UniProtKB/TrEMBL annotation, chains A, B, C, D, E, F:
Organism lineage string: Bacteria, Bacillati, Bacillota, Bacilli, Bacillales
Domain HD/PDEase: 157-293
Annotated CDD domains: YhaM_OBF_like (cd04492)
A Gene Ontology BP annotation from the UniProt entry: rRNA 3'-end processing
Highest taxon in the source lineage: Bacteria
Record-level Gene Ontology MF annotations: hydrolase activity
Cited Pfam families: HD
Protein known as: HD domain-containing protein
Species this chain originates from: Paenibacillus piri
UniProt keyword annotations, A-Z: Hydrolase
Amino acid sequence: MTLIRSLSNQDEFIGFYLLKELEVKQTNGTPPKDYFDIVLSDSSGQLSAKYWDVSATDKETFFPMGLVKIQGTVHTYREKLQVKIMKIRKATAEDGVSLTEFIRAAPIRPVDLVYTIHQAMESITDAEIKKLVAFCVAKVEEKLMHYPAAKTHHHAYYAGLAYHMVRMLEIGDFICKQRPFLNADLLKAGIILHDIAKPEEMVAQMGIVSDYSVQGKLLGHIAMASSWITEAAIQCGIDLQSERVLALQHLVLSHHNLGEWGSPVQPQTAEAVALHHIDALDAKLQMVEDALDVLPDSESWTPMIRGLENKPVYRAKW
Amino acid sequence: MTLIRSLSNQDEFIGFYLLKELEVKQTNGTPPKDYFDIVLSDSSGQLSAKYWDVSATDKETFFPMGLVKIQGTVHTYREKLQVKIMKIRKATAEDGVSLTEFIRAAPIRPVDLVYTIHQAMESITDAEIKKLVAFCVAKVEEKLMHYPAAKTHHHAYYAGLAYHMVRMLEIGDFICKQRPFLNADLLKAGIILHDIAKPEEMVAQMGIVSDYSVQGKLLGHIAMASSWITEAAIQCGIDLQSERVLALQHLVLSHHNLGEWGSPVQPQTAEAVALHHIDALDAKLQMVEDALDVLPDSESWTPMIRGLENKPVYRAKW
Amino acid sequence: MTLIRSLSNQDEFIGFYLLKELEVKQTNGTPPKDYFDIVLSDSSGQLSAKYWDVSATDKETFFPMGLVKIQGTVHTYREKLQVKIMKIRKATAEDGVSLTEFIRAAPIRPVDLVYTIHQAMESITDAEIKKLVAFCVAKVEEKLMHYPAAKTHHHAYYAGLAYHMVRMLEIGDFICKQRPFLNADLLKAGIILHDIAKPEEMVAQMGIVSDYSVQGKLLGHIAMASSWITEAAIQCGIDLQSERVLALQHLVLSHHNLGEWGSPVQPQTAEAVALHHIDALDAKLQMVEDALDVLPDSESWTPMIRGLENKPVYRAKW
Amino acid sequence: MTLIRSLSNQDEFIGFYLLKELEVKQTNGTPPKDYFDIVLSDSSGQLSAKYWDVSATDKETFFPMGLVKIQGTVHTYREKLQVKIMKIRKATAEDGVSLTEFIRAAPIRPVDLVYTIHQAMESITDAEIKKLVAFCVAKVEEKLMHYPAAKTHHHAYYAGLAYHMVRMLEIGDFICKQRPFLNADLLKAGIILHDIAKPEEMVAQMGIVSDYSVQGKLLGHIAMASSWITEAAIQCGIDLQSERVLALQHLVLSHHNLGEWGSPVQPQTAEAVALHHIDALDAKLQMVEDALDVLPDSESWTPMIRGLENKPVYRAKW
Amino acid sequence: MTLIRSLSNQDEFIGFYLLKELEVKQTNGTPPKDYFDIVLSDSSGQLSAKYWDVSATDKETFFPMGLVKIQGTVHTYREKLQVKIMKIRKATAEDGVSLTEFIRAAPIRPVDLVYTIHQAMESITDAEIKKLVAFCVAKVEEKLMHYPAAKTHHHAYYAGLAYHMVRMLEIGDFICKQRPFLNADLLKAGIILHDIAKPEEMVAQMGIVSDYSVQGKLLGHIAMASSWITEAAIQCGIDLQSERVLALQHLVLSHHNLGEWGSPVQPQTAEAVALHHIDALDAKLQMVEDALDVLPDSESWTPMIRGLENKPVYRAKW
Amino acid sequence: MTLIRSLSNQDEFIGFYLLKELEVKQTNGTPPKDYFDIVLSDSSGQLSAKYWDVSATDKETFFPMGLVKIQGTVHTYREKLQVKIMKIRKATAEDGVSLTEFIRAAPIRPVDLVYTIHQAMESITDAEIKKLVAFCVAKVEEKLMHYPAAKTHHHAYYAGLAYHMVRMLEIGDFICKQRPFLNADLLKAGIILHDIAKPEEMVAQMGIVSDYSVQGKLLGHIAMASSWITEAAIQCGIDLQSERVLALQHLVLSHHNLGEWGSPVQPQTAEAVALHHIDALDAKLQMVEDALDVLPDSESWTPMIRGLENKPVYRAKW
């Protein structure tokens, strides 16, 4: 079965794919005819596709996020590859394919990621900080198993958010050993909490963000997480004026570093400075790694990456 | 008694003033002598002053924020007026002067301002919004009687914050009549809440801000007020996810309009757009009015005003 | 008759509409066939449309800005609604429809708006200021009856400019009462003059701007209005160096506040500061009100609004 | 006689200088004593100076912009050279010194500069353009003989404005020969008019700008010159809507290139593009030449130059 | 034969053109048919074109950058002109047309441009500077005969780079005569070297840039030219620390003036300041001249020009 | 002996200090008297000081960067602490103090830092990369033992540059293990080379930068290091066009990330992205650690730190 990233112009192919998007449209002919405007995807990437001869049955058979078997050809349209679908049918139990094979996912099992996050949380020595973190994590416990970290920016796939947290926790551990003046409890808490409200900020399914929630648009995940800490303190009976509550809220509020990037205050504690830069280091490197992962072997340059000053990345030939 | 704004070069004068700042310093002579480096103020402005012949008794007699009677002369030092103090004594009960005469204050009595704010709050028809607003106002009830709205930017004087609120409420009333599609409850609530955390963000005495609090620096009044609304909802038993809580938090979070001005989200409801522009209109006009108020009659240009693109304001002669 | 804003995918409809734009194009077929590429509009919005079977007669019958009766169906093309026209004929006298019903217009009659502007002008107490304002208004007297205030930004409809002026005059009156130190004559004059050259900056018909004039592009309405004041002073025999001429030109030149927004100088009089912020308050709130006005009842979010930091506006459900 | 730029720490000297600034101040001693706070200047630069033993006669003898003979010593105060004046007397007729020797001036005689400008004006072939230019030049005819082009930025000396014009006219001639598609009449007119209102924007004496005029602050030289062209057209009976008036106003309005540099419109004719870049080329090179001119022979680096991105300029040693 | 810039909607025409781009695509029909998606060009401009009836032979006959004879018609597609090709054949020897007639080129013969550059190089009096320049020129000697100066920005045609250099050398000569304090050797060297690495930064054929090289993307022409000077010094036995090497590298590194425009250092020598502004003057005026050159006689406004603040240029009618 | 950071107002003290700066100045008295304007420093910080009674011998005895024994008192001058020196003598051999005790230095011995850098260099597996790195390191071998990484920004002390490299190498090792797709050879090389030219960009003694070199100002350390790689390739016989040379030059050129921060190109390889963010993480955390290190125990806030968006850092009390 051909992976989407290996398809090239003029290819003919048969295989299983995910109908990531599907819309019924009409041609300009007289009389107009229905056709499907489709986005196919698998774990290696995605491609737009057209299915021109749509029957009434087809319109009741195929829906977005369904698995299908397709026979098609690849051609170039407006300088991009496009699939012309010849045959299409729904995947059945006998085909032995499952949805999760067709979506992009973190390279570590979600259950392991969430376990690691819990372990980090348990290793926090300060009882109050641990309680505050646990309260917030509990709010999104289930979504941590599959939510992406962003719509397109970075870690935009199944369990991408948990994966981002785990990687940052590893870097955080290392930096705390290298610079013992840092408070490891606070840095761990900051890493776990900084994006904790993202699952409520975005609407996602199978690791794919379809939209932002009303709360996400009107408050943003930064202010949401800050309010969750207020809520946590009240529910856990911790003084709202305590230095711990203050330190955690500052970590969350300042982690985007600048006002124009969404932080109402700038990092002003050692751990807040560390948190921002560990976040940047992990997110940027993941963007690079993800872009190179789906780069066809024959290519040297990825597409432009918005988070990297809109520059492409070069893969050396040696 | 000569007001500070009427003093000019070479003047000799006697009068009562406030020792707004006072520090003991030493001259470079051998042996070095103690002197007082002073900032005098009254309701019309302030001026730096020196008192060169400081006795041991003087050092135990005079302290900042005390009222004194002074005989002095005015001269020019580095292009600014400065007072040389000839005689100084503490004001006594017999002098019949009181501290509040010597500080700059809103032109309406604090008790009337706070009464007006309470009336506006009472006029909110939605019971939940009214409760949320009342909870937050109660937190700073007493400080509303005297807190300024900012350190230097605008309304930087006794009861300046309450005065700013009251003026905005008047404009808000007018705009809601002009444009009935606006929700008057929300706009009133937004006006009362938008700067409600400023008394906890800043440390002030007699309308003069000496510093920002730790909370003020690490969280900022915007995030603080947003958290107060969370706290209010929990204490009043209002659903944290309700549209009302969301709308109020959005008003507070977005009222600085842009990320670089401290708002993590931009105004995205009609009332949030109105709130930001009413705030700007009132604050900017107050800066102008305050600067013209203390401008000597002989002058046409105020000093540069930071909040007005760092431009001075011209007063026409006709 | 179905309003354009109520049309949705798959609808079939019959009704009268305005041919806001119409172009004859050719299909790619062999031989190529002519078709009409059309923008339909009514008072509720606009929609693109295609008419595929164009006869020689059709090409001599239908022209832009004409009223037509249409039978059509709605479908989705590239994620936007598009009309396929089945039948089309010109509206006739018997149909009893008139052009002005089909364009978006200010909610107050133009004649009333212009009357209000004249009243405000008459209420200016300073004789010279009144003359200068009257001279400039006379230049665009007729166009004030129908010109929009902008191409797309705000008040972009029939008599939008006069409507913007009238609303600003109302706010100006209120603010002058609230802050008596403001010169009401100057503020009125500034409100009337600030956009007075827009009808010469833009080319508009029926409230729809099709282009900017050569003068508009090379000078801009700000410099144009400033020159009109010079012209007015010369024609009215008022000294070009007088403080009144200076004050009015400053109001006009500074009303966009910043150089990057087109003002060569920044506001430096009390009235200029007031003018800019009243202009901003009215324009921004009108953008919001206009966007909500055409928002389908089923929707909660308007499209992104360029003048509001490119953000959409949310309409609460309660 | 020692030039100011050759004075160094510990020097003792006697010579004639200009009292560019003089203020009477008082020491902190008891009783306080009067002293003069002075800025001395000659054609090579300027230096601050103190004269400590001021008599009553002295205060009636010495005033700013007077020529004096001085005996003094040079020392370092806060890392800058400063003169301690030992003896001072007014220059007399017998001394044979004249004010113009002591100020910085363009390297060409004002009368020759103005003659060249008139010649350029006469060489304009289009009668209307010539009339418009002549009208504006006539307004500042006399001031062109001595006005600087700016307060500090560039050509900040006697006749600096006329010198800047003449140099630009030379470059303009060359570029018009190199690129015949440019309209030489318009480019000449643009060069003569672009800064023509500067003598009314600034208040200057002997090539030294002491302040901006009220008109200069509230309108700026760009809008002022644009209005002068309006005035010129009316007085010369030229249609205000003519392409020539439009072209000249566009040249003036756009010559700062960007809104943030004060131009309400950007260059949109060939001549306007040429004008801006010829202006920049001449102004920037003059800043460099002027800075190197007053650089002591022993130094390699000039002070930072604001108009050159705040960078100093290096003079190579070979 | 009709030049491309004279073609208008509905024209039928026959003539020779260059196949600047050609791609084989497929229609959406069943079965899909091949067609050519083409960009035609000649010395006057370019136009997109479609050839719908492509045979197997055609696909082996026509390739990009080939000359063809075409019979076609012009129509409008999405508001742009497009050609429908009726007949197409390859140009033959008998047709007597040559490739260079069909591309846009500098108005002076390449051989003359390169000769002028060599003369300028020979006129450098300092032996070391001359050697350094000669070494770098030798690296791109052949490409100077035909390389453009940029992809689209300015001088984007055959021998555009050499033409840009020659024009700048003319301006440089003039400015050095006007301001003798400038070092003419350095300015000449700077003009020749500033863009000398562009032929290695870009991949171009017939004056048309198809892409940037890997070196061009990862290092940029500025750092490349700086390294060439290092290489030149080593190969010519000139001390790498010498003031001459330093001066030339500074000229190259600083010529874009600002960091955000690609210069790691800002101009800090007189010649570097001159170089930047001569470069800007020549490049901007060439953009204007090129845009006006291809503007149809009936039009007054060019398209928007990116290098001119994204503004169009107006051509007056008189 | 009292450390400078422990001195407070009114203290009297005796101890050994470094004369970091010393200048002879004159008082305004008649006759003027010489005095020393001094900056004292030790490993804990620095303080300005005055010595009023300077004898002729003193002027030949005391020079900058000498060790002295001082008896003095501390007072406040213009809100800053200042020392009045009562007695001063040079330190002698018997005093048993050495210069290095009085300067701020990296917490690891220089010899160990340089050894670690050499080890990292040796561990590079690619022979060509190793040679290129070794050539560049050899150029500054000796200065690596003591040069700071910057004038004031970060690691501004003895051996600060080597310390910065070693810390970054540690982080680089960790990240390469965490993300094996990174080329460890390139990342090591990039870390060693990115600031390698700083010792030639700045003039420093005892870890204190007094100025930038002419090369440093005209080329900057980024372009200098890039040229060194060119030189290294030529001297080592490595093809200048090779991918390795290209990769190293790209790492150096892009490591400041943005044009406005001095990088002529942006990171476009995985290792370049990693290098920039590791550099930022280490530099910012070091700024924080250094600022907290010298913060008096009684204080909670450091001064504003320019590299941290000009914000101070807060030290929690728990």
